[in-house]
Amino acid sequence: MRQSTRGWLQPCPWIVVLVLWVAFSWPSDAFLHIRQRRFSRKQTKLAHRAVAQDTSLKSSLPFANPDRCKEWRQEALAIGASVVALWTGLDCALDPGVRPLEDPIGLLKIALPTALLVAPGAAVAACARLKPTPADFKGPAGVVMVGDSLTQGTVSANVLEVLAERGRRRGQTLGSLVNGGLNFRALSDVGPELLQRAADLKPSHGLVLQLGSNDLIRYLAAPEWLRPAEEEWLQTYAEQMRQAALELRCGGEVLLVSPPPLGEALGSLEFDLGAKMAKAVEAVAADVGCGYVPLFEACVKFLQRSREVDSSAGTRGYSLAEFLPRLCLLPWRLYVGQQSLSQIQAEEETKLTLDLVHFGDSYAQLAADLLEEKLGLLK
């Protein structure tokens, strides 16, 4: 029987579903033997309850609770199975050489490698589909934050959850802390509908806009001969920030946050561009009458202080080749291996980041300190 010349790329759907079901449903200890302490399901639930009384315990906890892990597995399985089933169905329809009903055993040889190719992408995409926390777009809102994965908090420390925990400990009634973050979102992706939706909530404490990290990633990923001139690109970014801020202002006080740095290498190209982006955001905030949150500057100071204690701090530079493999592995470490953010940072030997783009607990505390002050939550 003739095999398809493209057959090694197209597995049959049922075997992919089986492989993904095993990968996402089997107990995590069967896959990852983490050197640090592992938590049972019951221990994890008890630990997450305890953190409500003592937030200092959070750094030692698994990043995701059991319910969150289950939600992630379901999303990853659905995405992976759907994509592979569609791809395979199209191939079977277009190529008469692919006959899964007549020769299913032959397709077994191509099913496993394809499932492995699909799994990393499905794992990352599933993080973007997780329900936003602490709250989705609903009122009455206390704070609305529009951002990217650093706001969504499914592959990075969740700043809004830190703010919510601090408010509970102070006995404050802040209203809903609305998470308007989405993985991979750049400022250039934001349309007026999203901004109007955020402004319509009219939060009592303010609207926060933090975008720019993905804009910088895309800029650096392009070959130099395809990039716009640096000055032109920064002007475009500043104008997009200005337009977004003006559209949000009808909803109340607006805070513009400078995007944190890529990587941890002080003095690198990424840090230089990040500093220029921060200055652009600050200038826009002053021009349109918004508050400015110097998050980039706070991260730089943190790394500088860390370097005074540890000479290796502030030396891990960003590159797309280093970032992408770490990003593909990160969801597995968080939702299958159930590692804490501090465990991942210890293994990666980083001070602020997990994968050179997404951040750990120290970053969340820095950002929460700044936002509490600028939003007036400490009054």
TrEMBL record:
InterPro entries: SGNH_hydro, SGNH_hydro_sf. It holds the Pfam family Lipase_GDSL_2. Residues 146-303 form the SGNH hydrolase-type esterase domain. This is HTH myb-type domain-containing protein.
